[in-house]
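Internal ticket - ligand job 292, zinc ion:
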Amino acid sequence: MRHGTAQNASHDGWTVCLTFDFDALSVWLASFPPATPAKLSRGEYGARVGLPRVLDLLAAYRLPATFFVPGHTAESYPEAVAAILAAGHEIAHHSYSHRDPSTLNVDEERREIERGMAALERLSGQPPVGYRSPSWDHSNATLSLLVEYGFAYDSSLFADDFYPYHPRLGDRVGPDIPLQPGAEAPLWEFPVDYALDDWPHFTFNFNPLRVGLSAPSKVCEIWTAEFDYMVVHAPTGVLTLTMHPQVIGRGHRLTLLAQFIEHALAHGGGRFARLGDVARELSAHNLAMEQQ
Ligand SMILES: [Zn+2]
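stdout (structure tokens):
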């Protein structure tokens, strides 16, 4: 069952949303403890080398992008976040500490949301409209908290590929309970996928499940094939790529990103956009349809 797929388009052509999770140190502190000096230096690379290169590439092509920034990163590297904002990109919520929300209780989740929001607001002067879970997972409370705190969109779930959708609140389902769908949440989900994320492709981490170190040609093949499928089969679709400055910022990988951008631009008939702008367009479009 696909909810509302056909009408969830507000633009005539394709849309590509380049998104960057600017985790810096937080991912090593929270997601891969113990955070040894070498691990932290991998995060620091993202702030001192990867991010400036990504910003230069986006400027060279004059493309807008969305950066998901943990509050911990915003407070550790305020100048870097100011540079993202000065370039006209969107800053969105990515927790405070990069802890997995599915491991937190509701009070801890609230603290993550509020502290992360305050850190971003201090730099940008306004609350973020988008959220991405640091673990690409939710607790049973996350979605209702995002609604309560007024987020316009989430980008952490997997139930579609090219069309943003409304994730559901209060589904009932279990091994012995067939799905009883809950109500659609009043926010947009921009679905993600591990094949469209630079981290699993590239990040080596001394773990058989985290081999990484792919050739960029392999990843370029996957990303461009996904784009080519979309323009034929979902011509008004939205392709969301997830990257990390500490991963994509390496020279050979930045060349891959440039190749992907060139491939999409050569196709024509579409645009690159920030997730927050697409969410706003979709809501306005749906409102206009309802009022007809
Ligand atoms: Zn992250």
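Auto-summary: The first strand starts at residue 14 and ends at 21. The two ends are 26 Å apart (CA to CA).
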